[in-house]
Design goal:
Elements (H helix, E strand, L loop, with lengths): L4 H11 L6 E5 L2 H13 L4 E6 L6 H9 L4 E4 L2 H9 L7 E3 L6 H10 L3 E4 L2 H14 L3 E8 L9 E2 L9 E2 L3 H9 L4 E7 L3 E2 L4 H21 L7 E3 L17 H15 L5 E6 L1 H4 L3 E13 L2 E6 L8 H5 L5 E4 L13 E9 L8 E11 L4 E4 L21 E4 L1
Helix pairs in contact: 2-3, 5-6, 8-9
Bound molecules: pyridoxal-5'-phosphate.
Amino acid sequence: MQIPSAVEQKLRQLAKHGATLNCYIYDTAPMRSKIAHLTEIMPAGVEVFYAMKANPHASFLKAALESGARGIEIASLGEAEKAIEAGFSPAQLIYTGPGKSPEELAWAVSHGIRTVHIESLTEAHRLNAIAAAAGHTQDILLRINADFDIHEAQTTFSGGSKKFGVDEEQLDHILPQILALDSLNFRGLHVYAASGVLNVADLLKNCELVFGMAQHIEQTYNGAVCDTIDFGGGFGVDYLETGHDFDPQAYADGLSALIKRYGFGGRTFFLELGRYLAADSGWFCTEILDIKTSRGKKQVICAGGINHFRRPAALAINHPLAIVRMGKQTLFDGQERIDHESVYFGGPLCTGADKLANDVAIDAADIGDVAVFGLAGAYGLSMSNLEFLSHERPAEIVL
Ligand SMILES: Cc1ncc(COP(=O)(O)O)c(C=O)c1O
């Protein structure tokens, strides 16, 4: 990985203050250009939402707002509040998540958010009662757990037994009951197959399956129209630095062909993207506090671990990693260093699970240098174990 010069410069500037370096550095320029590009190339009717779970930092929300994202996919009331604080209107919010509390649903109804994505029959009844009491009709999408999974994906959201949505096989049992609820306005389907997908064909297969379901619904239930279809997130990024990135143009072309084939022009299609938009706008930078050899392998201990950057351990994947050499004085003769070897990087926590990277080839590093993990703009701090061991929260620095 090539560390951007602005990131390196910032680290050198911070080092002058003398404090241990442990921070996220953000530059949302990549996110802004990705949103603008997607908006330009996607077929008519596609609306790009930012799934803010990837990174709820205000700079990412601002980037989404200013670069023309249609809105925000929220998964909690806390996210809704942050999105509104950033300048989005409630009508720009769409709400997905398998466990929305009555308070959260009541907030959604009373603030007039755009769509609530129903994940179960219970939730449909709960929302219907809340909307009826408020004298509103709430637009909804029904989330389906399709009988389809993308094996190679980092995380799958459909296929097999899942807590997300209702099984495709139960659609004809559940949908009529939802259509009968007077305070819900059925607008269509939400089917999110998997996250971290690099293979465009796999995601297009999901789109095709959803179109088939929509056709079935419209042919079976008089008056039911799927005018809005949400394909979820899932566009991947190249964590393993294989050189094969997700190809948004191929996705746009494939989706366009499907829309034409199914005669679905004029409908609305949501993309709620997190990783693809945010990942390359952030770097986790953490100082090397110690290097030692344990039974033949170098153990590199950094200032932050899974408390600040949990994703590599949680997903058992190495992120791109490079070292900024800081040229610090050695503490003693014989101090260990890395010299063209494959090593383990961990944090300061009292658990063997505190892994940042393993078997990673490093040319040279010394104690006091800074390990910089790339593609850390998505699911970095937001999915970390921040409270574990009560270390100071890492700064989030915006370039
Ligand atoms: C409902 C929902 N939408 C969107 C996303 C964003 O997915 P991704 O980061 O893969 O684009 C997620 C991620 O978990 C999700 O759960």
